[in-house]
Every structure is written in C-alpha cells, then in structure tokens.
Amino acid sequence: TTEPRHRRGVEEMIRRIAAAGDLYVAPHEGWYCSSCETFYTEKELGQPGNLCPTHDRATEWKSEENIFFRLSKYERPLLEWIDSGAPAIQPESRRNEVRAFVEQGLRDLSVSRAALEWGIPFPGRPGQTVYVWLDALSNYVSALGFGAPGGAGGDLYERYWERGDVRLHLIGKDIIRHHCVYWPAFLMSAGVPLPTTIWAHGW
C-alpha cells in the first residue's frame, strides 16, 4: 500500500465518496485500540478496564476532529446485500453475526485521523490522514489499477473487478466488521461493484 498507484486509488475512492455527499467533519471521541486501529463503545468493550475484545489489552480514550463517512445511510442497502439471493457472506454463522451488527443500528464512521506521522494525507484536509481501513481495503481495487491516470480504472481493474464474475475475499474472523460492513458501504457510496462473496474463517 505504499505504491503510488495505491495512493491514486485511495484518492479516487475518496473523491467518489465525497461526490456522493457522504463525508462531513465532526468531533470524534471514544475508546481506541491501536492494535486493530478501531474505536469501540463501552457496550462493545463490555468488560472492566475497557479491554479490546480482540486483543485483550487496554484501550485509550481519544478525542479529535475527524472526517466522517455516512455509514448510517447504508444500513438498509447493507441488509439487502447481506440477504441477497446468492449469500454474500459465508458461512451462515458469520452472515448472521454481521446482520445482527447492522440491525442494531449503524453509527457514522470516522475515516480520518489527526496528527499521524504515517499514512496517506486526506485529500483537501490538511492535518488529517486517511483512516487505515479506508486506505488498506482500497488495495483490493488499487492493486488492479483503480484510479489510474486518464480513467477510473485500467485493464486489470475492468477485467477482474468491474466486469469480473467472481470477486472473492477470504478473511479472518477478527476483521469481519471492516470487510462486511465498512468496505461494502464504501463501495456502494463510490459506485463500485461489491465483492460477490466474503468467506470469514477463524484465524
């Protein structure tokens, strides 16, 4: 993800999401796990010491102004995708887990971080860096040439993603939310085809 082609792909993804009206600036605060680079609510932590449920280590309280993505707007479209004719998330136990997460209500998602020394600068927002999961997930399409100069994609992107019959992800169970909620919502907003299947295994 340090390739110039990747940065172009991330910037194109953000340009499209912004064009859809799905970005805004607001204060952001919550319990943050630096290992999974994710904010959690107290309900999600649900244990003494505010320990990360994945890493079993202490989270820290963070407060800063960030750029937010209107994730809540995609609650209904995500549920429709999850329950589409050809189940997009496998196995069924993981699909049910994702559905339950979405059905409890989605909050808008911070997609930038302030004062980071690494990462892709957020286009048009000095002092903000692209949230690592918006950055990293975009690699699925940036590696194929999405965002290439002179067009939105390239031959590989057109062949394997835009017109591809199978767009399969194989993931571990600890990154289900990022792949099965955030990533499809980013793609919906940007007008990019979604994965056909996401297989969420154990570790």
Give a description of the structure.
With 203 residues, the chain is of the alpha/beta class. The chain has helices spanning 4-19, 42-45, 75-82, 92-103, 132-137, 139-142, 155-162, 176-190; strands at 23-33, 38-40, 60-69, 89-90, 109-110, 112-114, 128-130, 168-172, 197-201. The strands form 3 sheets. It has a 4-stranded antiparallel β-sheet with strand order 2-1-3-5. Strands 4-9-8 form a 3-stranded parallel β-sheet, with helices on one face. A hairpin with a 4-residue loop joins strand 1 and strand 2 (38-40). The longest helix has 16 residues, at 4-19. The chain is globular, with a radius of gyration of 17 Å. The model has no long low-confidence stretch (mean pLDDT 89).
- Counting H and I runs of at least 4 residues, what is the number of helices? 8
Name the structural class.
Answer: alpha/beta
Strand order within the widest beta sheet: 2-1-3-5
Order of helices and strands: HEEHEHEHEEEHHHEHE
Please count the beta strands (DSSP E, at least 2 residues each): 9
Mean pLDDT: 89
N→C terminal distance: 23 Å
Using the alpha-carbon principal axes, give the shape. Answer: globular
| Major sheet attributes | 4 strands, antiparallel
Beta-strand portion reads 15-25%
* Uncertain runs: none
Radius of gyration: 17 Å
Share of helix, binned: 25-40%
